[in-house]
Amino acid sequence: GASNCQFIVDSIKNITTMHKVLSAQLPPEQVQEIFSRIFDLLNHKVPDYFASVDPSTPAGQQRVLDDIQYLSHSLDRLRGVSAANLKLEDHFRTRFPNAK
């Protein structure tokens, strides 16, 4: 979405591009292994990136959660890759319990 955080938009674009390249060159099992590791890395790096973001309003908290959901749902749609180990929504729902 046009209103999403640039970090999120860039991450989706770059990861999607990497998925296209790797999917064309590697067997599906190797692509899944690579993306499982990428998702594990994102589980640590994205919360770090947003650590200093502390919205004081429910709308601000919802905006952060919306961005995280956009990232999670976009990565979950990568063909042939399970994003089951991507736990970003859980982290941010716990951090911002008032967001929907």
Q: Which properties best describe this structure?
A:
single chain; 100 residues; mainly alpha; 4 helices
In words, what does this structure look like?
- With about 100 residues, the chain is mainly alpha-helical.
- It is about 70% helix and about 0% strand.
- The chain contains four helices and no strands.
- It is elongated, with a radius of gyration of 14 Å.
- How many β-strand runs? 0
Report helical residue fraction: 55-70%
Q: What is the structural class?
A: mainly alpha
How many DSSP H or I helices? 4
Instruction: Give the distance, in angstroms, between the N- and C-terminal Cα atoms.
Output: 18 Å
Biggest beta sheet summary: none
Rg measurement, Å: 14 Å
Query: Low-confidence parts lasting 5 or more residues at pLDDT below 50?
Result: none
How much strand?
A: under 5%
Mean pLDDT over the full residue set: 93
Shape: elongated
List strands and helices in order, with pairings.
Elements lengths: L5 H20 L2 H22 L8 H19 L11 H8 L5
Question: How would you summarize what this structure contains?
Answer:
By secondary structure, the chain is mainly alpha-helical. It has helices at residues 6-25, 28-49, 58-76, 88-95. Helix 3 (58-76) packs antiparallel against helix 4 (88-95).
